[in-house]
Amino acid sequence: MNAIDFGSDTVTKPTEKMLERMRHAELGDDGREGDPTVRALEILAAKTLGKEAAVFVSSGTMANLVSLLTHVSRGSELLSDAGTHIFRSEMGGIANLAGIFHRTIPAKRGRMDLDALKEAIRPQLTPRALGTGLIVMETTHNDAGGAVLPLDYMAAVHKMAGEAGVPVHIDGARIFNAAVALGVPAASLASHGESVSFCISKGLSAPVGSLLCGSSAFVTRARAFRRMVGGNLRQAGVIAAAGIVALEEMVDRLAEDHRRAKRLASGMAEIDSSLVDPVAVETNIVRLDFSKSGKRSEHWVEALRGQGIAVGAWSPWQIRMVTHRHIGDADIDRAVETMQGLWRH
Question: Is the whole-model pTM more than 0.70?
């Protein structure tokens, strides 16, 4: 029986058309005179997100780090909720590499409390407090189980930041999932930030890379910081070619992943309603809570692996299952049936 990998949408393999484009990509030195295929991807990314320019980088973590370095002076303060990827999953790059202090704002499903955020913003350095250098929003919100930030919320944060003269960065690793879920162009979400990053290597199925988009002046500075952190690329058109196909052909199909995630959640909830609330599943991430079972997440990860189903532990009592292009309806049904059998024992 074939293994099913729900561990992440980063396991997606490039399509045949991506591989064909990669084989025939026009190449150059992206760190010197430029790679024409990388440039074509950057132009497409900027246009798709409604920004003036974009720069291709190797990962979402690098895109976020370069954004911090470009926006914020050392010793300033970054505001976000405690669950953002920048804060919880990027190895302390905020402080270790960017020299930025971080303050978390109370949040629910990735949405910072607007009153608390307003109180925390300080437009400039004072004798008693650091100035706010940047506000970060993340959509979809990984730590909140793939939750989507509402457009009116994003607009409110952006307006509040603008009034204080503080830029906003949108960590949009899965911004196309958010856009599909809301039924709007990704540019509608990106309009609420001075910069936005997104991955082509998750549900869009390209093998490597992320884009950082913003104004032309911002991206010019970002290219310098990309070089500083060792991110200069050479004949990167080999991988950028797959990103072009990803943006041209792979966005609309994300709705299939969302439908299957909802199907997965509904099936798990029928086993026991304590496992998951299907209403809370908005995109392609399903988190199962095993607190009621008394068995920690590691137990369930190993039990499912023994049945040929790969998942990831998210917390001591929760596992994460992510749908993607290689997960079909039959795989969803098999996962639910397997869990049903394990739950009974």
Answer: yes
